[in-house]
Amino acid sequence: MEFNPTRAVVHNEGCDLHYWYQGTGPLITFVPGGNGHGRQFNNMIAALSDKFTCATFDRRQMSASQAKVNKKLNPPQQARDICTIIQALGFDQTILFGSSSGGIFSFQFAHDFPDMVDHLISHEAPLTSLLPDASDVWEWFLHLIDVYETQGLEAAAAEFGAKLIGYDDEGIPPTVSPPPENPKNFWDNEFPILLGYTPNLSRLVENRTSVGVMRAVRCKDAFFARGVEDQARILKCPRMLVPGHHQGFEVETKEFLPCFLDMLEILEKKRSTSVY
What is the top-level taxon of the source organism (predicted)? Predict the structure, then answer.
């Protein structure tokens, strides 16, 4: 379908959250990661809105969703923001698709609002504390904070961006860049909190939350891709290797979409055949 969403604003905890939606049917909520802006999901929304109500948003302190005062990232608050948007749309439950730190916020949402989750698909959530080399990654993150504080955003972003494998592959279109205030908010207020933050995945298992995780083929052994294996093991959930890079859903939507639908089908079958 053509991308032609309805746009709206809902207020939550000191921030006007800008969101948009399109289509009819079960709700899919797309949760942005560290870049903060929802428009990376517009192609997915257009492709799926013939069968689903598709919604996304700019996260607080990012793009259009500006707070009066910027504060340090609060993952439970991010989950409450998601909840507020779902309720504003008039739904009691949603399918969640969260990419990168959006996957972390989706896990947090499932932890805090388990009854509101239909299915949850996490695409390369960087839960680095689960990695075998977690200590090395942690110290590299601390190094990046030092680079940011002493050399500035451009230097830190360049070193961090070198780990975003696959974006420069031949023939791959560029992603839509967020406005310049988003990276600043990310490094000022989000990155230091995300260093080792991990929602309680065991609680998702206890709640029998329907979860699937995805790893992008172009990312190879990037730290955020490798963590998917441990997530699948802990969550005892389906794992899928999907086309594209860390934002493949945005720029290789046609190739990515069948995997997304396959994962939903796998999760539906798993739930219907489970005996508790």
Answer: Eukaryota
